Every structure is written in C-alpha cells, then in structure tokens.
Predict the structure.
Amino acid sequence: MGKKWSESRPAEKMLSLYTLLLTSSQPVRLTELSRLLNCAKQSVTRLIDQLESSHFGKIVRHQLGRQVAYSLDRPRHRPCTSLDAEGLRQLALCRELLLHFLPDDMHRVMRDSLYQAAALLPDAESLPPGGIGGRLSKGHIDYDPFAATLDCLTGAMQTRNVCTVSYRAALHRQEKTWQYAPLRLLAYRESLFVQGYMVTDDGPVERLFDDTTLLALHRITACRVTGRSSAALPDIPAPSGEGLGIMEMEEEPFEVSVRFAPEAATYAAERRWSRDQRCEMHDDGSVTLHIKAHNEAECLSWVLGFGDRAQVLAPDWLRKEIKKTVYAMARLYHTPRKPADTAESGDSPAAACSLRLRE
C-alpha cells in the first residue's frame, strides 16, 4: 500500500496543486485547497507563489467574499467533446453522498477524474461547488485501512482470479484462510460486503458450496491475488432489490405482514421495503405493510428495530421468533448479570439478528 497523503513531499503537493487548478472548471477557494492538500493555508500560499514564479501557468486570483480563490488561466480553444454536463454534476453529487464508504485515496481519484472531465466542458457549464451533498449515518466503518484490500478484490473481480483471503468472522473468533473467488461488491447497511465463491485449495477451481459466500470487507485481514482463474465459475445474478435483506441463494422469499403504530406509520409507509409491497391504512392512524423478505435474520432484526411500534401479523413462525427474542431480551434486564455469566456474543439474540456471514 502506498504512503499516506499526509506524508507526501512538497514537490508532490505542488504537482497536485497544479493538477487541481488546471482541471478545475471554477476558482478553488484557499480553504478548499488547504483541505484537499492536507496542509495549512500558509503552505498553500507558498506553493501558489512557487508555482507562479515557475512560469508554468498564469495564476488568477479571485476575491469571493472574504475568501480568496485561485485558478489557472486556461486556453480559450479546447478540444471538442461530447461530455454530458448534467451527467457529470450527478456523478459529483453521488460521489459526495457515498464518500463515507470509500478510502481517502479513492476520494481523490474520483475528484480528480471529475475535475479533468469538467475542464473540457464549455465555459457556460461547470460542476457544482463541493459540499452540496453529504451523508449522515448511525455508525460507519473507516475503510481507509482497507484500501489495499479493496484494490486487491476489485482487481481480482475484473480479471476473474481467485484470491487467498484471511478472514476473522468476529472479534473472538480465530482467523481462517480461504481460497475465494470474489465476484461482486455490495453496499448494505453502512458496510461493504464481498460476494463470491469459496473454492478448492488447489487443482481445478471448483466451488466448495453451491451458494455464494458473503464476506465483510473490514473483517478481511489479508488478501492476495493468485494466478488461478475463476472464469469457469457460474456468474451470480445482480441484486434484484425485490425484497427486504440480502437474499442467500439457498433461501426462498417469503411474505411478511407487519402492523405499525401511528408513531411509526409515516416512516414505514413512505419507504419502499420491497418491489411489490402493499400498504393498508387504518382509522386509528396505524398501517399494515405486506412485503416480501429474502433473509430471515434480516427481517427479524428489521422488525425488532421498531420496538413496540411494530407487530408481526404473519407468518406465524416469525411471530414466534419475535416472541422468543423479546423474552430473551427481557431476561437480560430483569436480573443484573455479571460479565462472566453472560453468553458469548455469538450466542446472543442480537447476534442472531445480524447478517449471516460465512465463518
């Protein structure tokens, strides 16, 4: 893995500054340059002065309110292109909404690519200023330490190669090493997952299981691409989004009916949980949703997340699972328990509701 951006030499930051100004379709504020280059404003102004004295381009200064911004005087005649300005603006917004999923190095690659494309747009067109989009979450994972793992997996997906993957399914579990053929990257519930096949250790590449295996990206401790090809393995269908949860290949979709109290009715009714869901409105302000679910554990976790404001009406087996889990939770709070008396996290009701991953 390459060195961190904070460790970059002044010459490298000078080159980055020049690239930013050259490819930006609008003046870049000093505060934004300071953030992008990860250095103080005084350091940025010194780089600007050095760049200006090198005669590689004319620096244009702009006064935007109380802030100063910089740009390079670009040639008036640019090559004819068929770039879609609106498409680039939408891509820029999507990037800002998804930044929390990706490492910083990938942020910069996407940003620079957008700026380079926007630099070829007509003068009347430009990208929106940075910061118009954002994402709030209840908890997210820092994927910076896993940038090399992400590069390794995505590279193997493109070339259809097998990887040697070391994986720790939980904090208290032993690390295991597998031969794994990654095929798809999935974003789900503030996390990134890899979907692929566990394969034989040597010889012809064959599946160990008929169904695919989901691995949480942040639990992969090591990843190395091998020379073994996974091209002969069957493709996996793209996620359909037809029902709640990530569908395991051995599971069949099932119908679920849940009645939501008035306090949760608006939240539940205004969201799309499955493609063919139906919503019944009741006189007391409550609603009943009829949806399709793909994953039993995910469905159980979803209902429990609403607390006493959601009641499962069907199927009966899910009602029984909810009841059993609620009783188990009540026992946790009924009598104080010593840490040594508690069950292992892998056996707790909460763990039973998590997304099932291959151990």
User: Anything to note?
Assistant: The mean pLDDT is 79.
